[in-house]
Specification:
Helix content is 13%, strand content 50%. The protein has 165 residues and is mainly beta. The chain folds into two domains: 48 residues, no CATH class; 105 residues, HesB-like domain (Hypothetical Protein Aq_1857, Chain: A). One of its GO terms (biological process) is iron-sulfur cluster assembly. One of its GO terms (molecular function) is iron-sulfur cluster binding. Pfam families: Fe-S_biosyn (PF01521).
């Protein structure tokens, strides 16, 4: 009695493609009426090599209107990167923050992406909440300013500055 398992897997860049076959004896199992049988599990896996993409995935998307506003603020501020993150607080439990800082303050494990020549930095703790988020800017008279659109948020407060997951 043998089981054959087939599937498709992927190998990191630099790996080799092709078909791999693995067999392992798994010992004796009790069969019907207490008879013991050897069962061999065999897997045949087709492996495909995947090339890396040229563009890294940014942890945050920034709209054109937000980019223009950020570049204007950066120029008037004199600091060369924007740190974004999440802190405890706000009506819904977590709140966003943004602050300009010098590139010299970037930590070893910070995530860094670049938008129109400006570095956007996020610490590792905040990254799990920020990944996939969109930053927008609105010029509306009421409720204008930077807006965070977070697909991971399960609840938000009325002002949109805090959220819960």
């Amino acid at each position: 009695m043998a089981f054959v398992i087939g599937g498709v897997g992927r190998v990191a860049p630099g790996g080799r493609g092709g078909t791999r076959s693995v067999s392992r004896a798994s010992g004796r199992f009790g069969g019907k009426h207490g008879l013991k049988r050897d069962v061999i599990v065999r897997a045949s896996v087709e492996v495909e090599t995947v090339a890396p993409t040229d563009e890294p995935t940014a942890f945050i998307a920034v709209t054109d209107t937000a980019t223009k506003q950020l570049l204007m603020l950066k120029d008037s501020n004199g600091k060369d990167c924007l740190r974004v993150g999440v802190r405890q607080g706000g009506c819904s439990g977590l709140s966003y923050y943004m602050e300009f800082e010098e590139s010299a303050n970037i930590e070893k494990f910070d995530e860094v992406t670049e938008v129109s020549g400006m570095k956007i930095v996020c610490d590792m703790k905040s990254l799990m909440y920020m990944f996939g988020m969109t930053l927008d800017f609105s010029t509306d008279l009421v409720g204008g300013g930077f807006k965070f659109f977070n697909p991971k948020a399960t609840s938000t407060c009325g002002c949109g500055q805090s959220f819960g997951v």
